[in-house]
Amino acid sequence: MDDLKKNGIRNEKGVLLRNVRRKTIRKERRRHSLRRVTRRVVSAVLAILSVWVAILCGHMILTSPKFLVKNIIMEGNSHLKEKDLRRYEDRLTNNIFILNLGAVRDELLQEPYVKDVYLRRELPDRVHIRIEERIPYAVLRMEGRECLVDREGVILGPLEEKTGKALPMVSGIRQDKDGFWKEDLSQALSLVDALKSFGYPDLSEIREIEMSKDRGAILHPAAGSFEILCGAGDFLHKMVLLKKVSADLAKRNWAILRIDLRFEDQVVVGIGKSV
Predict the structure, then answer these.
(1) pTM over 0.85
(2) DSSP per residue, the chain
């Protein structure tokens, strides 16, 4: 009997302890749940406040006259006309943060003389524009008109008398839908490169560079009525050969009709009647 009583007491104590533990666990769970809910509510309130503050600050920045563009600095421009400059200034006279500089850059790149352009914001109210311009390299006479081209063969616009005087003239190119005229122009400009690099003959001594469909590049000297057939290929090597043969021809009393450089390591001289 005593053992039964003792076991009964122990069982009652165990039940009581388990009940106490359950109550304690329930209380802890309720506290944790309350803390989680509180944290979530606080986080939501802070997020709402942050969004509201951001919207308020954004509105203040976008409407503040302090950030209205007042100064536009443009470097490197020598060909954009006044009316074009005013058009770009109108595009950029806005809040500095909402300017679409990419669109303005794309538009500027459509200008013939603009090779590349760099734009940047300078807080609080200035935009800096740096233009890299194309440089006239030759005069192209094609289809009854004369225009300036750069080294890449990009047509810049009609010939300007002051600029064109110092540039070599390229002729004989006919425009076609397949774009072969650009290949011919590239050959002509490569010949100009060779003349500039080697220095002989001097560009001032060349009246015209003619591109012939059958004979390739042809030099027409400013003085004399003969022609120098250059064909295509390594023009620098051909100018070296030309200089060598010219030194020899200068000693002879010949009437030169043509100098043909189209053959590898060989120069063919066509002569008329001796003088």
Answers:
(1) no
(2) -HHHHHHHHHHHHHHHHHHHHHHHHHHHHHHHHHHHHHHHHHHHHHHHHHHHHHHHHHHHHHH-GGGB--EEEEES-SS--HHHHHHHHHHH-SBTTS--HHHHHHHHTTSTTEEEEEEEEETTTEEEEEEEE----EEEEETTEEEEE-TT--EEEEPPHHHHTTS-EEE-----TT-HHHHHHHHHHHHHHHHHHH--S-GGGEEEEEEETTTEEEEEESSSS-EEEEESS-HHHHHHHHHHHHHHHTTS---EEEEEEEETTEEEEEE-S--
